[in-house]
Amino acid sequence: MQRVISYVVQWMPEMSIGRIVLRMDDGSMQAFEVDSPAELAALCDILRNERHLAWDPDQKLLTTNWHGPGPGHH
Predict the structure, then answer these.
(1) What is the Cα 53 distance to its own chain's centre?
(2) How many other β-carbons are positioned within 10 Å of the β-carbon of residue 40?
(3) Number of domains comprising the chain
(4) Given this model, what pLDDT does residue 67 score?
């Protein structure tokens, strides 16, 4: 897993495609595309709000160590 340290988000309306470019702590970059403004917005929310994101280059997965509220939390 490679830790994500920064990102760039683009929406290209002429092609109806969004692109996210992730920069990893080892200096490498990974780009992927989405075809929905709603999907792009949801991914932007995750990128903006999560502090501990990692990219798995083998499975091409963006992951986080986020945990929901424990017992007794509302």
Answers:
(1) 7
(2) 19
(3) 1
(4) 55
